[in-house]
């Protein structure tokens, strides 16, 4: 199972769905939490990591063997590079030291935008979709709202929700944190986007995107 699948327990998933349903009872907005395993594969980080680790290990083995032959080093390096490449692919967490915070931030922002459209949040009747996107690998949260909401609500307001969810996740309370974020979104929407008599639940109340 992927990190996204185990990020919330079954009980936390059920509680989060109920939180979304409760929040949407008072507003025409559609709030969709999305839990993603990771936002990008970071192949460049895997390549750099394999080069660095393969080089260091090849040097160490060459010295341990008492050989100062460039061809021995190159043979060892090639073999070790291939081994580390497979290791980095199998264990993406090893790539983190070779990924900048800015790169992760940019990739999460792009993935959140992609998920917003891929899951149809831009197709609600009144353009009132909101995504609370959590990328587990990067430990990052993004909140995006559709045009109907952003025309009336300052997009900077979503930073409060991001902080609320992020702080809760760091404190080891991901389920409670996401519920708090959902409730806060609902509070921001209820005045400007009250529920309509013919309102329907247009989108899923929780989406989990497993590993690639």
Overall description:
This protein is an alpha/beta fold. It folds into two domains: 3-40 and 100-209, Diaminopimelate Epimerase, Chain A, domain 1, CATH 3.10.310.50; 43-98. 54% of the residues lie in helices and 11% in strands. The chain has eight helices and four strands, in the order ααβαααββαααβ. The protein has helices at residues 3-6, 10-24, 43-64, 70-90, 101-118, 147-150, 158-170, 174-190; strands at 30-36, 129-135, 140-145, 207-209. The chain has a four-stranded mixed sheet, sandwiched between helices. The relative contact order is 0.23.
Structural class: alpha/beta
CATH fold-level assignment of the largest domain: Diaminopimelate Epimerase, Chain A, domain 1
Q: Quickly name the level 1 CATH class of the largest domain.
A: Alpha Beta
Mean pLDDT: 93
Poorly predicted regions:
none
- SSE pattern: HHEHHHEEHHHE
Number of domains: 2
Measured between the Cα atoms of the first and last residue, the distance is: 11 Å
Q: Globular, elongated, flat, extended or rod-shaped: what is the shape?
A: elongated
Strand sequence of the main sheet, in spatial order? Answer: 3-2-1-4
β-sheet strand percentage: 5-15%
* Proportion of residues in helical segments: 40-55%
Radius of gyration, CA atoms, in whole angstroms:
22 Å
Number of strands: 4
Number of helices: 8
CATH A-level architecture of the largest domain: Roll
Biggest sheet architecture:
4 strands, mixed
């Amino acid at each position: 199972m992927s990190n996204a699948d185990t990020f919330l327990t079954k009980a936390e998933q059920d509680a989060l769905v109920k939180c979304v349903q409760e929040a949407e009872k008072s507003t025409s907005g559609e709030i969709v939490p999305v839990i993603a395993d990771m936002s990008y594969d970071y192949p460049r980080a895997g390549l750099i990591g394999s080069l660095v680790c393969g080089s260091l290990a090849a040097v160490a083995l060459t010295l341990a063997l008492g050989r100062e032959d460039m061809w021995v080093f190159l043979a060892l390096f090639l073999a070790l590079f291939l081994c580390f490449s497979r290791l980095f692919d199998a264990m993406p967490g090893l790539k983190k030291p070779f990924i900048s915070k800015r790169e992760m931030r940019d990739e999460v922002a792009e993935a959140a935008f992609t998920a917003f459209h891929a899951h149809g949040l831009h197709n609600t009747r009144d353009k009132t979709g909101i995504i609370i996107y959590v990328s587990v690998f990067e430990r990052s949260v993004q909140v995006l709202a559709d045009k109907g909401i952003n025309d009336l609500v300052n997009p900077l307001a979503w930073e409060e929700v991001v902080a609320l969810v992020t702080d809760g996740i760091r404190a080891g309370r991901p389920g409670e944190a996401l519920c708090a974020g959902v409730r806060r979104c609902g509070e921001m929407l209820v005045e400007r986007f009250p529920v309509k008599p013919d309102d329907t639940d247009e989108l899923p109340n929780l989406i989990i995107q497993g590993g690639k």
